[in-house]
Specification:
18% strand; globular; 329 residues; alpha/beta
Length: 329
């Protein structure tokens, strides 16, 4: 903290030539200045110590509150796919979605559990997955901006798979699929009490245990999940902000609501440059209040990119232990 600067100007009459008196006067003034400085520093130091202790106490209290909550944190994980990507979807179903871990479930199963009259109040599923496909056909816009239904029952070829969500838009990657997904996801989250929305690429290989550890350690459930955004961090000189890499990013449901519903397509078009993950960062940073970013660079719970099937399976069979749970904390 800055302290006042003390300037002294001492003038002696020409007749005064007493060295001892001069030194005594300077010593007295120096002591006075030091006393003021120490007094000011002590007061500010005590104030800062109080603020630091209070801030730490509040942070620990918030952390302990969400950890002690009976409700585990939940995330809707949209795995981005496309109508002809059936082989890749099957590969994912045979690997990280096939562990039998009840903390993972499809969106259909989650809704079924939540809507059962005799079902449990708290269900074990924390990661609710669905494959996200543009199913609206070539005559539909790339970003849902009309009164038509937000989803359709099949892809544009009439095919349907139970664990897929077909958005009522033309299939695309950089022109509105992600924002339409957030529009769909935020509406669903409000209805079924989901805390976070995640987007995941189908060429990334997820470590299920590490992923759950990361959620439990770092992502608070409602009502503590506010304006949280994260992923592997990137920076943009063009936009002068940071953003999360597109293979996986997540956000609290209030930010998904902001991007998908409240921001509006015209406002999004003003900042869009058709780079999906960078654009998402721009949308989120347009929020009027501060954003809390969680950087995954210290512990990424997935391998990426895994373009080849052989590489995907090899890493699943041999290297998943490299995604240490300790890295997620």
């Amino acid at each position: 903290h800055p302290h006042p600067r003390y300037a002294f100007s001492i003038e002696y009459p020409p007749t005064m030539n007493t060295s001892k008196q001069c030194h005594s006067t300077l010593f007295f003034l120096a002591c006075a200045a030091l006393t003021v400085f120490c007094s000011t520093w002590g007061t500010e130091s005590n104030t800062n110590l109080h603020r630091s202790t209070q801030s730490k106490s509040e942070t620990e209290s918030s952390s302990e509150s969400h950890r002690s909550s009976d409700k585990p944190t939940t995330m809707l994980l949209g795995i981005f796919s496309y109508s002809k990507g059936g082989d890749r979807r099957n590969l994912i179903r045979e690997t990280y979605l096939a562990t039998g871990d009840e903390r993972f479930c499809s969106l259909d199963d989650f809704i079924e559990q939540k809507t059962k009259d005799d079902g449990p109040k708290l269900i074990p599923c924390q990661v609710i997955y669905t494959f996200i496909i543009g199913g609206g056909g070539k005559d539909r816009p790339t970003d849902h901006d009309d009164s038509k239904p937000l989803t359709v029952s099949t892809d544009d070829n009439g095919n349907s798979e139970k664990d897929c969500t077909y958005l009522n838009i033309k299939e695309n990657m950089e022109h509105g699929k992600s924002t339409t997904y957030l529009k769909f996801a935020s509406s669903l989250a409000e209805e079924y009490d989901i805390d976070f929305i995640g987007k995941f690429d189908d060429d990334a290989l997820l470590g299920p245990d590490v992923f759950i550890d990361f959620i439990d350690e770092n992502l608070p459930p409602a009502p503590y999940n506010r304006r949280i955004y994260g992923g592997s961090i990137r920076t943009s000189r063009t936009k002068n902000h940071y953003y999360a890499a597109g293979e996986f990013y997540f956000m609290s449901t209030d930010l998904a609501l902001w991007v998908g519903h409240e921001m509006g397509i015209d406002a999004r078009n003003e900042v869009m440059i058709h780079i999906e993950d960078l654009d998402m960062g721009s949308y989120i940073h347009s929020h009027p209040r501060p954003i809390k970013y969680i950087n995954l660079m210290g512990g990424i719970p997935y391998f990426h990119p895994m373009k080849k099937v052989s590489e995907f399976r090899e890493h699943w069979d041999l290297y998943m232990d490299q995604l240490s749970p300790e890295l997620a904390k």
